[in-house]
Design a protein that fits this description.
single chain; 491 residues; alpha/beta; pyruvate-formate lyase- activating enzyme; OB fold (Dihydrolipoamide Acetyltransferase, E2P); 3 domains; seven-stranded parallel β-sheet; 14 helices; 20 strands; 22% strand
Length: 491
């Protein structure tokens, strides 16, 4: 088929970074077949929404976005609306029945077939023939490798490396295993090769993601595992930061602690979902953790990894959670003194064990507990950030801040992209003419705390972006809308 006959595509990716990687693989498939990416939905003949359905808020956002994009069938040029990802995987029959606006329904295990499905749909449209099968949802078994085309979106200097797909845990509140299947790991050779390719294209921050990093390699009885992978990734030239997301606390080996402590490229930051601290609640959640194990692990981590920053998530209002157990959680979090904590009200999700439990709490109770805990954590976080004032820290330059061209946005290694706040440079000192390039590393002095962000004075560049990489831009990025909602991240 000639390139000029290829329809233009607009893409919206919802939810977590793991879903974003799937979106990038879909875009890579489209690019290899010469599809053009539209910068706005108005000009797109095909609109794809890669959805999330982890909790109720995510489902609502996904449906609202699909309906928003469906309006371009009337006001724009859209001839095919595609819904992919977790929502159709979970509710394919309902989507097929109740959303006639959607032309193609693709689950989490079929997204890599996007080009052939679009080709079949377009051929039928052009020939005036009956449309082919509308729904493509099967048990998920696919995971991409370094051999699958993948298009980098977003900042060139930061990228996600998905180690595995699926999850073998059966937490009572979580629907993920039903949406993504059991663990399917990639080989170390595959991951290292993809990471090298990412570094060659300007990636300096490598974010490792999976449903659970500690489950990586479990289907091979851990003959390939996280402890073997990390030293290989640290050897890759060009990668400066390696960040670990979703490291479960109950499977944290001593060897993993040692590797994080000794490898300078692995940032002293852990995204470690905890969910609760009361033993009885953890037990009914079907978590493999106890309060004693958690406190012992935190003591060990802090002793062996000075300056460690921990991000976690907590669920309040889980069925049968008592007031005493909630107060216990609040007290424990004060003692644990963690750095970034997301607080979620329990969401009753059909298909999960928790949805069938007795003892569901009234929404007003869950709301009150959430607000109470957030207030405690905000005061604790502000105290930690205020302690940084006057300190010299290294940051990665992200570019001009959205709110003003006079502000330069950056991040410390202890701040993950999009979720942990920013460092805003408002003073270049005697370096007024300096050009700071996204991806540069620089030394700054923290001068004040402004709400959730830190303000800083520039000192000097420490590790400049390689000149050859400065011209590496992601033209596609503006045509791919990633709507990241902190309410649905890693709950």
């Amino acid at each position: 088929m000639e390139n000029k006959s290829k329809p233009t595509v607009y893409f919206v990716s919802l939810g977590c970074p793991k879903n974003l990687v799937d979106s990038q693989v879909m875009l890579g498939q489209l690019e290899t077949k010469d599809y053009k990416i539209s910068q706005t939905p108005d000009d797109a003949e095909v609109i794809i929404v890669n959805t999330c359905s982890f909790i109720q808020a995510a489902k609502e956002e996904s449906i609202e976005t699909v309906l928003e994009m469906a309006s371009y069938k009337d006001s724009g040029k859209c001839k095919a609306l595609v819904m992919s990802g977790c929502l159709p995987q979970r509710y394919s029959k309902e989507v097929e029945k109740e959303m006639p606006e959607v032309d193609l329904i693709i689950g989490t295990g079929q997204y890599h077939k996007i080009t052939e499905l679009l080709e079949a749909h377009k051929k039928a449209q052009d020939e005036g023939a009956p449309l082919p099968q509308r729904t493509y949802v099967d048990f998920p078994a696919f995971i991409h490798t370094e051999k699958d085309a993948r298009m980098h979106t977003g900042p060139q200097f930061s990228g996600y490396l998905k180690l595995s797909e699926g999850c073998n845990r059966r937490c009572a509140f979580c629907i993920i295993p039903k949406l993504r299947g059991n663990v399917r790991s990639r080989t170390i050779a595959s991951l290292v090769e993809e990471a090298r390719n990412m570094a060659a294209n300007g990636v300096r921050e490598l974010n490792l993601v999976a449903q659970d990093l500690t489950e990586y390699g479990m289907e091979w009885k851990y003959k390939e595992n996280l402890e073997l992978l990390l030293p290989q990734l640290c050897k890759i030239e060009g990668i400066e930061w390696i960040r670990l997301h979703y490291v479960y606390p109950d499977a944290f080996s001593d060897e993993l602690v040692d590797i994080i402590a000794r490898e300078p490229k692995i940032v002293k930051y852990l995204d470690m979902p905890i969910q609760h601290t009361a033993d009885r609640v953890l037990d009914v959640m079907n978590r493999r953790l106890t309060k004693v194990k958690l406190f012992d692990l935190m003591e060990k981590l802090r002793a062996r990894i000075p300056g460690l920053v921990v991000r976690t998530s907590m669920i309040v209002g889980f069925p049968t959670e008592t007031e005493e157990e909630f107060n216990e959680l609040c007290s424990d979090l004060v003692k644990l003194d963690l750095d970034h904590v997301g607080v979620f009200s329990f969401s009753k999700e059909e298909g999960t064990k928790a949805a069938e439990m007795d003892g569901h709490l009234h929404p007003s109770i869950k709301r009150r507990r959430k607000n109470t805990l957030i207030k405690i954590l905000q005061d604790q976080r502000n105290e930690k950030l205020s302690a940084l004032i006057g300190q010299e820290v290294e940051v990665m330059i992200e570019g001009t801040a959205e709110e003003s061209e006079l502000l330069i946005q950056a991040r410390m290694s202890t701040q993950a992209q999009e979720i942990d706040g920013r460092v805003l440079i408002n003073d270049l000192g005697e370096n007024e003419d300096i050009q700071l390039v996204p991806g540069d590393f620089a030394l700054v002095v923290i001068t004040e705390l402004a709400q959730q962000d830190l303000v800083a004075r520039f000192v000097k560049i420490t590790k400049p972006m390689i000149l050859a990489q400065q011209g590496l831009t992601t033209a596609i990025a503006k045509g791919v809308e990633h709507r990241h909602d902190q309410r649905i991240e890693n709950a």
